[in-house]
Amino acid sequence: MAALLVCALIGLVQGTLITRLRLSSLIVTLAFSLILNGVMLILLGLGPFSGYPGLLGQNPNIVALHQLMWGTINPTLSWIGMALVVIVIGTILWWSDSRRRRSGLVAPPASLTILKIALIAVVSVVVVAICNINRATIGTLAGVPWVIPIVLAVLAVWMVLVQRTRFGRYTYAIGGNPEAARRAGINVALVRTAAFGLCSFTAGLAMLLYASLLGGMSNNVGGGQYVLYAVAAAVIGGTSLSGGEGSILGTVIGAFIISTLTNGLRILSVPQEWQTVVTGGIVIVAVYLDIVRRRQRS
């Protein structure tokens, strides 16, 4: 919790510098990246990768952090949890679409809503079935990893935040046209600062999972490629670099495309240097797609 609060505070500081001093957001984030990389090296003390603090021990906090990536839910509980999630999501979708249809608003037909619920159920069954297969060479390792419900929970909360709340509407409005948003009475500086804080908080969640995956901590976060993957996934998923457009679901789809490509390169034993070349190419293509979309809209 302390780490997440520190991450949120860092984001709020960045947002304050950007909104109050009118500094470039790109320059501020790059500068903080350099500063915090240096701080991380100071804290690690033993080099770019020290494995410290190690996550193999009996301390309850260490065990809990290690289990984020390596812990699994009991197979029976996995099925029960999956059923509850599908029921809740299905109920929300049906109720929301039915309410819009009764109000005379634009809404998909009932058959499409049923199809979406069925698709969610099928995907959920497939994921849980695969996860419940014994993956251990020796002993038993089966069940849905804890990281899956953690990520799904984060996605659900952020999806509601950006699509169903006033803050989310304000964020889209500012991204589309900050001056128009200001004239409409939106506190642009406050919303942008809060957005930077939430962004940094989410990055903190990602780093907790990364630390759990490594079993320690490293200054070399995927060789810096994860930052590029994040940008490419968002843009491929429909997020505009100029602001005002994008969705959580689209970003998830973009992330699936990126992860499938990178995983395929590893399976094909493509050398690391060429994987880096492909990563740069992906970013260029993603930016070009964003430009093409904006030209088509104009």
Detailed description of the structure:
It is built from twelve helices and no strands. With 298 residues, the protein is an all-alpha fold. It has a domain at 221-298. Helix 1 packs antiparallel against helix 2 (25-44). The radius of gyration is 21 Å and the shape is globular.
Structural class: mainly alpha
* Uncertain parts: none
3D shape: globular
Order of helices and strands: HHHHHHHHHHHH
How is the biggest beta sheet arranged?
none
> How many angstroms does the end-to-end distance come to?
45 Å
* Extended strand count: 0
The Rg value, from CA coordinates, equals 21 Å
Number of helices: 12
Give the overall pLDDT as a whole number. 87
Brief account:
With 298 residues, this protein is mostly helical. 74% of the residues lie in helices and 0% in strands.
Q: Keywords, please?
A:
298 residues, mainly alpha, 12 helices, 74% helix, globular
Set out the fold topology.
Elements (H helix, E strand, L loop, with lengths): L1 H19 L4 H20 L15 H11 L4 H28 L7 H22 L15 H18 L1 H11 L1 H6 L4 H27 L10 H12 L11 H20 L4 H26 L1
Helix pairs in contact: 1-2, 1-9, 3-9, 4-5, 6-7, 7-9, 10-11, 10-12, 11-12
